[in-house]
Structures are given as C-alpha cells and as structure tokens.
Write the structure tokens for this entry.
Amino acid sequence: MYDSLFPTRHRVLKFLCCALSVASLTALPAFAQPAAPLASSYTLGLDQFSTHTGSRAIDVVAPHDGSGRVFVSAQSGEIFSYGADGTLLSTFVDLASTTANTGFLDTAGSFRGLMYFDFHPDYNNPTADGYRKVYTGFQSNPSFAAADYSQTNGTPVHYVVGEWEVSTTNPNQIDTSTYREVIRFAMEGNNPHGLGEVAFNPLAKPGDADYGLLYAAIGDANTNGNSNPAPNYIQDLSNPFGKIIRINPLEDTAGGNSYSVPTSNPWASTPGAAPENYAIGFRDPQTFSFAKDGNGETVLITFDIGASDREEVDLVRAGENYGWDRYEGTNDLNPTRPLVPGTTHSLPVLEYSHSTGFAIIGGLLVSDPDDPTFQDQVIFSDLVNGKMFHADFQEMLDAELNGTQAQIYEMAVAFGGDSGTFADVVDGVDGGRGDARFGYDEAGNVYIVSKQSGTVFETGLVTAVPEPASLVLLGLGGLLFTGRKRGGSRLPVCDTPRARD
C-alpha cells in the first residue's frame, strides 16, 4: 500500500478530466496577493462513522496494531476507543479524573484541555521501550510543575506532553498510574497559540533515523498581539516558541532526563540554541502531516494559521526558517524584524487571503481509490467558515523548488442530502463554523471529525501508511481488523466544475 500510494514524485500530476483547464494548473507568482481558489469539480462525500460521545472532538488516531480500532480525543479530556465498524468500545482515558497526577485543566480558550495525541510506533512491539506507550498534549495547571521553557509576561498557561501506558489487561484503557511528564511549556495566559499537533512520523521504519522521534508544533506564545507580537523571541533559537520541535520522548534513564534530543536535529550542537528545535518561524502551526518527496525525503506538510491576511501551507524541512514574525506567508509584514542570522525565508507553497478564509487547518496527502483523477492531493479546510480545499502535491513540490505557489481548489462537501461547506452539512446552517480535524486509521482510510458536533465522518479517501511493524496483538481477540465500507455521495469528477452550494 505504501509503495502504491507514494510513487516517484518527480512527475507531473494532471487531472485527466475535462473540468480543469490548462490555465488552472499554472503556478502562481510569489509575493503577489493570493488568487482566490478555483472551484473544484470534485465533491467530497461523507459517511457517518460515529457520533462522538465527548465534547469538542479534536483528533483521530490509530494505534497501528492490526486491530482496526480508531481513537478520538476531546478537549474535555477524554480519548474514546472505537471498533472498525464505529462501535464505541471504551473510554480510553479521561484526563479530567487525573488532575492529581497531571494537573490537567480545561480553561484556556481555543487551546484548552486535551488536544492532539499519538501512539508510539513501537506501541505493539513487546520487546521495545515504546511498547504500549501513548503521548498526549494538554493544558496543565501552572502550579503543578516548573516549565522547561517559558515565554510569558503575565499569568501563565502551561502546556504539557505526557506519556502513558495502556493497561496490561485491557487494550481499550490507559493505566493512569503510569503517567509520566515529558516536557512542559509556559505561555501567556490569554494566548491562543499554544501546543498543537504531537505526532510520530508514520513513514519512518525501524532503523530509520526518524523512527520513534516525536514532533510537536509550538505556537508563538502571542505575548503582544496577533500581527505584531513582541520581538526578539520568535526569530530566536534559544526557545521553542513559534517552532516545530523533535525529540525522543522515551525517558533518558542514563542521563536522568525525561526525554532526549536526537543529535541529527539541526541546532542540536549550536551554542545557546534550544536543541529540540527542528524548524522555525511559525505563528500557529496547529497541525501538520507527513509525506515523501521524489527523492524519498520526508517533508512535514504544515498548516500555519495567519494573522492579518495570509493562511499558509509550508513543506517543512529540518533547519529551515518559515519567516514569522517578519513574514506572514509571502507578505513582508514586519520589515524591521531580522531573521535568525544565517537563515533565509523559506516560502510557503500555497497561501490564501482572508477574503477566502481566516484560519487554515490540515490536512493530509490523500488519493481516491475509486477516482484516477483525484490522486496525490493535499486536503485541508478553514476552521472558521468550513470551506474545504485541495491542492496537487506535485505542484506544491514544484512551488517549493521554484519559489512559486500551487493552485488551490475549493470543493463542495456532501452529507445526508446536503451539499456546501463542511460547516453547512455538519450543522445544517449556512455560514456556521467549520472546525474540522483530519485523521486516518491503520489502513489509511481518512476521517474528518467535527469539533462543533462531535461527529466522526469517513471520507472514502486514503492516505499512505506503512504496514504495522508487528501484528503481535495485545489480547484483542474479536477486535481484529474487519473490512471498511468505502465511498459516499461523491459526485463524478468529470461533471461541470461547481462552486459550493
């Protein structure tokens, strides 16, 4: 599956349908006002997988253990375990009941409570240190412990990456007594740019340098406004704020540390630099996902929420600088702000203005197995208005190489006889808020969860994931993988291009 969905990248991907013209495949010039997205001929059909029983559903993750299970987190503190057919199996964990040993809080605006989580790639390997381990990002009481890194001028909010182990007797429940704190950040109390995605590279295989390393997106701490934050700490290597970090989250027992930093990190040996930093210059990179380029190199497709007018997608590589707080997308927003010495501005591969949407969220590299014209597309959405987009991954790679921009397409979403934006079909009210989040199961089937309604949807799309390293199961018995229903109410791609309803 991995090989079939990640063919050699240095080829030109073209839609084979009459609906997309030659002009629509032309790259956009950089440093120009972003063009409005074109109407896609593709309609994304949704099937309901489950009605999430928690509030403010936020992430969808699979353990890659051969079980076919799907796990969904909610900001209120729960992670729920579902069978392959959408049946609720158990509450995997409820952090609201763990405040005595975690300091869990659910009080700080958009980044409150439990956010993103992931399973260690050795979760299913009983001979490995990552066996049965799960990692969560969440808000914690500032009085609970001292922060490893701090950027605050007032009452702080703390964000934590924590480690747990699943029960030895129940694979659908975390043993809360195993909790261990990995890393803690202190930020401004009214800061909406906190701890985002925490994830392992699913494309790394045992023996690869990236295997078992945890990536985390850290917001810019926003200590003095959205468009013009306080200078001298974002474009500064000494801290992780406005950056993506990479660590080995397993306890460094030999060194007496709660985690270790890989020596391959780009600033691991730079005096005065935070060695955890992997890439820099972000405002609010709440979500990212993984892909490989034509040379087999991993890139992080990162969705950085903008300030005054630009929402951007970056193809993130180690040691690169994506510009904030000097640049917002391709816009030179704060011209007097210097970049970190020795770095240059790595341009986004696509962006849109606030005439299109206000807060980008991603997003995965996907293909439709039933439609040869919808292959290797990056899908993403706007949190505020619920518009759903896609762009061609090869165009994005070309844009990275040439300093141009890939074309964005807006697609309609169909569910239950309704068609429009994701917000339209989820809440039935045109103009409602979208708040979509994306995830996939161990077979690569793609899901979208609505933070507004808590519903988990299947899409009929697939993303590339490797086979599990081991199919030694944790006593799962009847939970073994079963066939997944496919498809939905998608419209034929060769229909006349259509704007959203």
About this structure: The first strand starts at residue 28 and ends at 29.
